[in-house]
Known about the structure:
The structure is a homodimer. Chain A is α/β, with parallel strands linked by helices.
Amino acid sequence: MIAEIISIGTELLHGDIVDTNSAYLAEKLTGCGIDVHYISTVGDNKQRLYKTLQQAVERADLIITTGGLGPTMDDLTREAISEITTCPLVMRPDLVIDIEGYFNHKRTTMTPNNLKQSYLPEGAIPINNPVGTAPGILLEKDNYIIISLPGVPREMKIMFEESVLPYIKKKNNLMIISKELHFIGIGESTLETKLEDIMDSMNPSLALLAGDGEVKLKITGKGRTKKKIENKISEIVKTVRNRVGEYIYGEDETSLPDEIGKLLSKRGVTIALAESCTGGLIGARITDIPGSSAYFKGGVIAYSNEVKINHLGVNKNTINKEGAVSPETAAEMASGVRQRLEADIGLSVTGIAGPEGGTDEKPVGLVYVGLAGIDGEVKTYKLNFKGDRNKNRWLTTQSAFYYLYRYLKFSFK
Amino acid sequence: MIAEIISIGTELLHGDIVDTNSAYLAEKLTGCGIDVHYISTVGDNKQRLYKTLQQAVERADLIITTGGLGPTMDDLTREAISEITTCPLVMRPDLVIDIEGYFNHKRTTMTPNNLKQSYLPEGAIPINNPVGTAPGILLEKDNYIIISLPGVPREMKIMFEESVLPYIKKKNNLMIISKELHFIGIGESTLETKLEDIMDSMNPSLALLAGDGEVKLKITGKGRTKKKIENKISEIVKTVRNRVGEYIYGEDETSLPDEIGKLLSKRGVTIALAESCTGGLIGARITDIPGSSAYFKGGVIAYSNEVKINHLGVNKNTINKEGAVSPETAAEMASGVRQRLEADIGLSVTGIAGPEGGTDEKPVGLVYVGLAGIDGEVKTYKLNFKGDRNKNRWLTTQSAFYYLYRYLKFSFK
């Protein structure tokens, strides 16, 4: 089955918003074994919308549109589909009731233009919209299927998951299964070299995705039976784990803070943070995880030297002699926060995020991470980043998590 | 001038990555007064890429492609342009030198396939790539211009800004100027009602963009002279400021932490944070701003009650009697951090982010913000959010910034 995705809305052609709907739909369709050949974006312009739809029904089996289903004059999707499919728009009394019900429930007044949304091309099946007024459209013709969803991502996604996905799965019985392996502490090119001989494998296929200071390997298999595809994927995973297993920190939907949370819970220990250049970002990422209060005590954002001295117990002489950005300060911060917040583990970072504050000796991007373990012993790590402020701060959190993860995973007695 | 944007790459059709390049280019082109009629995405497939390009040169004056310029066999953009324009590919000795130079500089070995990137369609001008090996292509034909840029956003953006934008501005002399007003403390629909009579204005046009707990108004004017457009925009801005000026916190590229930073600097005062449910996210956002060390002392991430008591001086009885999520605790947290970190202002948040931890009396989404002013007086604010954990945490930071901003702007003596 060949699919085409069409995003409708002038705001997309102005670049006011990024079209995330298409990537979402493309991923879901690919996951069902459907080949997406084209993604098109077109504005709220009658003529160009017709042309784009006409072309799509000629070259694809399944056309999914998003946007242009609202009640205003700009919303042209309904009319365009009616025209292209030669199915006249007819009012659906059941939809009138739904739309009136929606406004009653919200206790707001319905304006007459909302009734436009109760018209569908003849023969179309309305797709229920549990979170808005615009119903979707599903229309089967001899050679193609058109599905129209609203442009608001939240509405589109709920309707796709609840109604469209089950329908498509029935129509198309080729299955695609993917598995993701998450790596930390190894670069994309090194990984590619180590896996060179299997990277070209066709089924399952392998793809490396790098970004945000880590690398993912996506393994995708196609077939008719789940069992067979999963077996093929397992074989690849086994090969990869044999070669570079020590750099894999997780599979599928996960993140470093997620895996660290699991390890801390499993070992029944708590952690506290002392953050300088990250200003709270490590804490924000740790507490992103629901239930993190079980192992996260809290932290000190020690942005000024006073706070480092008064609230973490860093020695004034250490800062004067070695500087606030030094392994010695990082070590005292980690020890200090561990003791003062009565945690089992203390993690600290101090560095120069930029753009100001760098010197020849201590350039922008220099960062020290301190890790005080459960026995009180402290290790420090030196890092040199080359990014801008944002990137340096993010990579600092990634590195801190990396050392913490390895400590919890491998060095913990 | 009518433009079309084409994104090339199978990874886009799989939904592995979201196409942010097109929105970036669309915004820049719109800003130059160029109408973008279509955005298309096509995979690394010869036949479909040719068709898409052929169609584009027939209906647009300016075609910008991204992706498919790399050295591998999958990269087909160069060949496709050569075919469509009937300009044969010729090797450019100057580009060979550039590419060899790039590898020498990086001290890595050049593989022969990299030389593919030294071939350009005859008559094309290479676009310098300061951060990678793939040069871009600029080819002027009688009826259209094709510009090809790499798909890596960082490379694409630098090349667009440095080389393409100046070229396009010369070619097209209609000007578009935009101004953005940032609102906080007023909802999209209220704002729309208050501006109803001017929302339909054509030139300048007005658009409301809501998201992330705030609303933006984008005012866009078109014309031939800068002065005239700016005057028209100024009139609209004046009208808007007269009606809803108190909710405007900034113009154009800015953010709440940015404006708060400016106010703190201007007034020469410092701030400290006591964060519970946000776990460091407020600090992370404040320290996103370069130079924030001038006014940000630091903070305490008081995730556990122990930390609230021992490191912020919250009274144990307050927590036992009123609970950790209460106006009383928020007030003591704000006072405590202000005193202990010797800051002029203390800002605190405590709440239930979810998904667990809610009760009938104190449901998920209940948050208290505490603000201890320069005179030591404390105010607290109650909030009820209805989102998931992520959204509740983000909206908590937005609200805390809102109260802080209003304090600094209006109540400060």
